[in-house]
Specification:
Strand order of the largest sheet: 1-9-8-2-3-7-4-6-5
Radius of gyration: 20 Å
Largest sheet: 9 strands, mixed
Number of helices: 8
Helix content: 25-40%
Number of strands: 9
Length: about 300
């Protein structure tokens, strides 16, 4: 177990696994200052309530989905003032619709269940994209996150498929470990030491099956997804894999630069309308951008948060 702010250094965590005899590394998902609240609660529980501490492997935090959640009825009630247009699907229709959208290079706002605890989006308040597309990284950075086009994104991969895409095959449920992309995923020589490429132009040398999540050094900061802790997200990634052969998706936090991760349905709708996201999915409701009132007037939906 590893904690405190230093434990949020994903590259260092990957190096620990690469250069030591440890086979697994568990990092508290809110290892920074915010996690102090969890530690204080545990101290009170064990010392003042005289409770017995038990260790439940592999992870008694069960995905760290500790925030608020909303029923479909609550979502509709909270959004009614915006006069949104939406489609309501059953589970299978929802997964098929969203998986097809991702494989067609659509960008999807994904809002499901209880919100994540900690600094990483883990598939409850996430923006999702096609990891196999060379266009995804630039599109999501410039048109959704409003930041530099080279910024890398993280992959969410089915936990049992992790070894097919990443060399170390770590258990990384909280997106806190960086691992080299597996050699068999490269389509051409990496060329990382080429003298003809400098700085961010080196990104052009990396030719992998998952270009949207491969860093300039050939690594990725991954999240392994379990059906036990986030069943719907797991099933969505599985559907994407069945359609495309790639059992992972781009996962970035549901926000734009300078704003916090969305928490409530109205936050998600405002972010969706103020960016060039194609679809918004809140529970079993799917919102298509072109069907929304005033969808062409993005400035109407922007909020005055300063860029970080």
């Amino acid at each position: 177990m590893f904690s405190r702010g230093v434990a949020l250094n994903c590259v260092a965590n990957g190096k620990i696994l690469e250069n030591t005899e440890f086979q697994q590394l568990w990092v508290q998902p809110a290892a920074g200052d915010a996690g102090g609240a969890l530690g204080a609660a545990m101290i009170y529980w064990y010392e003042n309530q005289l409770s017995t501490r038990t260790v439940n492997l592999p992870d008694s935090m069960q995905g760290a989905l500790l925030g608020p959640s909303f029923t479909v009825e609550q979502v509709i009630e909270r959004l009614i003032a915006y006069d949104p247009q939406f489609h309501q699907f059953d589970e299978e229709e929802l997964l098929q619709t969203v998986a097809h959208a991702i494989t067609e290079d659509k960008v999807v706002g994904w809002f499901q269940g209880r919100m994540e605890f900690g600094p990483r989006a883990l598939g409850a308040r996430s923006i999702l994209g096609n990891a196999a597309s060379s266009k995804t990284q630039k599109k999501m950075n410039l048109k959704i996150k409003y930041r530099e086009s080279f910024r890398p994104f993280a992959p969410s991969v089915l936990e049992e498929k992790s070894g097919e895409y990443f060399e170390q095959n770590p258990s990384s449920p909280y997106m806190l470990i960086t691992s080299p992309v597996a050699k068999k995923q490269y389509l051409a020589e990496m060329g990382l030491n080429s003298e003809s490429k400098k700085g961010f132009s080196r990104l052009e040398n990396i030719k992998t099956t998952i270009p949207a999540v491969t860093h300039v050094d050939g690594s990725a900061r991954l999240q392994t997804v379990s059906s036990k802790t986030n069943h719907r997200y797991y099933e969505l990634i599985k559907k994407v894999g069945e359609l495309s052969g790639t059992y992972l998706v781009v996962n970035t936090s549901f926000n734009v630069r300078g704003e916090p991760i969305v928490c409530f349905p109205e936050d998600a709708y405002m972010c969706f309308m103020g960016t060039e996201m194609d679809l918004l999915v809140i529970e079993n409701l799917v919102f298509i951008k072109q069907e929304q009132p005033h969808y062409e007037d993005r400035e109407k939906w922007n909020r005055p948060f300063p860029a970080d």
